[in-house]
Amino acid sequence: MSSSKAEQTIFKKVALSEKKMLFRELADDKGQIAVKGALLEDIFHLIAVQVEKDEALLCHHTAESKDINTAQKVVINFAFKSERYFLQTEMYFESGWVVIKIDGDLFQLQRRANARLEIPEKYDATFILSQHGGANYFIECRVKDVSAGGFRMEYFGDRPLVQVGDVLKGTLRMGPRRPLEFSVEIRFVQRTESEKVTKQVCGVQFQNVTHLLENRLLSLMMDLQRELFLKFS
Q1: Do 123 and 175 meet the contact criterion of CB atoms below 8 Å apart?
Q2: pLDDT class for 228, splitting at 50, 70, 90?
Q3: CA angle, corner 153, sides to 150 and 155, nearest 5?
Q4: Which of 128, 59, 54 is nearest to 97 (CA)?
Q5: Residue 21 — φ and ψ, nearest 5°?
Q6: 41 contacts 67 by C-beta, under 8 angstroms
Q7: Closest to 113 measured CA to CA, from 26, 31, 187
Q8: What is the rounded CA–CA span in Å between residue 46 and residue 91?
């Protein structure tokens, strides 16, 4: 996997001048930002109020975030003119403000249907298939690529023999992160046989994705993209 491909697949870096304009207009509009903290499982929201020297975004709490007061690393995202933007940064508290550092790189979500991250062979990425068609399994499926909408995986054997439209249940594990349980729908299947061994390659789509889960998946994709770029570029 080339470094350029890792950088450009899902998120595109925003030019500095555009980044400054975006944060200034976000603050003028008192826009809402979604925050995923390193110390918290759930996403919470803040209200952008003021930009300080194009280096910090001063925010107010929302009702759901009023009890959060611990400085930590965060991924923030916000929508602006039908586009969505992401930033990996730090959050801290000062003089009554929730402060988000904005001196780092800002990225725009690429909305192409095929926007995905290819997973290097040496990276630990698996989907533990646990249910299909009313039967229970424990099959480790190798994840080949992933996006915020689904992933492509492969496994060996003819059980279960899946078809397009089938729904699977299982657990997605990406590196050292906490595994996530999903139901996924089969959208593509390719079967090959070599020396009497069947290999099945499946493209699957996440099911029952709420807005909150979509934000969480996109934050995961950004964090994963950065990790893969640093380790495998």
Answers
A1: yes
A2: confident
A3: 150
A4: 59
A5: -65, -45
A6: no
A7: 187
A8: 11
